[in-house]
Amino acid sequence: MGKNRWKQPATRDVPAEQGKQPRYDVTDPQIHSEQKLVWRFGIVDLGGPFGWGELGRFELLDILASLQQYESMTWNEIDQKKSCHATRVKDIDKVAYDRLVHLGLDDEEKLYQIRVNSTGRVWGIRDRNIFKLIWWDPDHKVWPTSPPNT
C-alpha cells in the first residue's frame, strides 16, 4: 500500500490561451439577412381557417415548388420583394389573430408573409434566417390589402 491513490498525472506542456474569437456577431441582424432562408415546420397549423390540413396533393405540390425557389435567396433579396414582408400582429385579421391565440403564438410582435402566387401567401415567424411556417393563406385574408365588399 505504498502507492498514493490521489496522484495527479504530470503535464509537460500547458496549452496556451488561444483567445478564440467568434467569426461574426450572431446578435447582429444584418448577418442573418445575408444568409439564405431556411424552412422550419415545427409550428405549422394543420387546422383552422388557414391550416394546411385540407390542401389537396397537387395544390400542396404547387406551393412547395414555389417555396423551393426562395431557398436560393438571402433574406436581403426576399425583403426587396414588395409582396414579402413583416406585418404587425395587431394589424392582422381578427379571425387570424384568434387562431394565433389558440395556437399560443400571440406573443409574437410580427408575422412574415411570403408570396406564393397572385393571391396566395405563406405566413410564419422569421427567426434570424429561419422561417417558421404557420399558415397557408390562399386568398390573402390574414392581412387583407383592401376592405371587404359591403
| Cα end-to-end separation | 97 Å
Overall mean pLDDT score?
Answer: 85
> Number of domains in the coordinates?
1
Query: Class by helix and strand content?
Result: alpha+beta
Radius of gyration (CA) equals 24 Å
Brief digest:
The protein is of the alpha+beta class. The chain has helices at about 30-35, 55-70, 75-80, 95-100; strands at about 40, 85-90, 110-115, 120-125, 130-135. Helices cover about 20% and strands about 20% of the residues.
Can you characterise this structure?
The structure is a single chain. Helices cover 22% and strands 19% of the residues. It is an alpha+beta fold and 150 residues long. It has one domain (31-137). The protein starts with 28 loop residues before the first helix and ends in a 13-residue tail after the last strand.
Topology diagram in text:
Elements: H1 29-33, E1 38-40, H2 57-70, H3 75-79, E2 85-88, H4 94-102, E3 110-115, E4 121-127, E5 130-137
Parallel strand pairs: 1-5
Antiparallel strand pairs: 2-3, 3-4, 4-5
